[in-house]
Design a protein that fits this description.
- With 115 residues, this protein is an all-alpha fold.
- The chain contains 3 helices and no strands.
- 3% of the residues are buried.
Length: 115
C-alpha cells in the first residue's frame, strides 16, 4: 500500500510540474499575440493614416510599455504559481488555481485569435 501511495505521489508531482511548465510555455508564447491585438485595436480606433506621424510613435510606445507589463505579469505568474503549488500541493485550491491559469490563457488565446 505504501508503494502505491509513493507512485501516486510521484505521478502527481510529475503531472503538476508538467502542467506548470506547459502553462509557463503557453503564457510566454502568448505575449506577442496579445501585444499584436492591442496594437490592432489601437490602429483600428485611434491611429491616423500618416505613416510616421504621432500615431506611429504612440503605437510603438504602447507596444513597449505593453511588453514590460506583460513580462512582469508573466514573471509574477510563474513565481507565484510555483509558490502556490509547493505550499498547497494536491489540494483543491492548487487545482483550482491551475484551472484558473489555463482558463485565463485560453481566454487570451481566443482574444488574440479572434481580433
Amino acid at each position: 500500500m505504501n508503494d502505491k501511495n509513493t507512485r501516486n505521489r510521484a505521478f502527481l508531482v510529475i503531472l503538476t510540474i508538467g502542467l506548470w511548465l506547459l502553462s509557463a510555455l503557453i503564457a510566454f508564447l502568448l505575449i506577442l499575440p496579445v501585444l499584436d491585438s492591442f496594437i490592432t485595436i489601437y490602429a483600428a480606433f485611434w491611429a491616423d493614416t500618416n505613416i510616421g506621424g504621432s500615431a506611429y510613435y504612440l503605437g510603438t510606445t504602447i507596444r513597449q510599455i505593453g511588453v514590460m507589463v506583460l513580462v512582469i505579469f508573466f514573471v509574477i505568474g510563474i513565481i507565484g504559481g510555483i509558490e502556490h503549488y509547493t505550499h498547497h500541493f494536491n489540494s483543491p485550491s492548487s487545482w483550482e488555481f491551475m484551472f484558473i491559469t489555463f482558463a485565463i490563457e485560453l481566454t487570451l488565446l481566443l482574444f488574440s485569435v479572434l481580433i
